[in-house]
Amino acid sequence: MKKYDVTGIGNALVDIEFKVTDQFFTDNAVEKGLMTLVDEDRQNALMAVINTEQAKKQCGGSAGNTVIAISQFGGKSYYSCRVANDELGHFYMNDMKDAGVSHNLNEGNLADGITGKCLVMVTEDAERTMNTFLGITETYSTADVDEAAIKDSQYLYIEGYLITSENGKQAMKHAKKVAEENGVKVAMTFSDPAMVKYFKEPMTEVIGASVDLLFANEEEAMIFTGKDNLLEAREELKKVAKHFVITQGKNGAMIYDGDTFIDIEPYSTTAIDSNGAGDMFAGAFMYGITNGHSYASSGKLASMASSKIVSQFGPRLQWHEAKDILAKLNP
Asked: At CA 271, angle to CA 268 and CA 277, rounded to 5?
């Protein structure tokens, strides 16, 4: 029996989430609805004009949010990441521990530098806009990949955001190779439309012949496949993924189980913040498939969990909320 259900690799970022108006974007030259990589000076300039006292701070990053979700539902997850020996680095390490996620961080291996931060700006229409300074996580490399944890997992989960640097791409390829050579299944998320739009070639290189499980939203699926409709895009995805999930926002999701397509209905909700919805969907789904649930049942769990996430502020459930969702799945 494997020690972990899922080992994730990705950018370790402290998420600083706050509400803004559309005027904020105009006043500060921020492009709405996208994840934009910025330098430290630009991020500091934005932080100077926000009310940080009202901002919500949590350890995160895309894969970080996903492995935390797995833990909250009762799964066993591990995170291989990189933070600095600074205040936010220690915050990240302790917050991950409190979330029940095992990790490769300890007091002796925190590097000199600055821990990455993601400013998550949420508007009244529930759309998220992110400005990210990667900091020390930009140097994440093959040396940070915990091979032992991967070998002792059912799944490796790879975050698409790592593709923006050459060392990150090599870490993705190395981790995938370790998994494949040891009979560990490989799951991957595209993470953001910008990743497949601007890094399609290296992303394709990482995917190689195929992955066992791919997560994408509608826009990412169509950009990556070069198709202008979802029916054609999903057929193309069969060439690179044995199984995949295409999330469709308020329209639910579509799952390919390797044989047939399964439509997952959405759950009625009032969206106030879309931050972390895709990460939560992936985490709940992966908890399901690694803990005896079918693809359909796992999709239902993921849809319930992500609908709950968008109805509140922040990318993480409360522990009791995760238990309540599981109880509804298995009344």
From this structure: 95
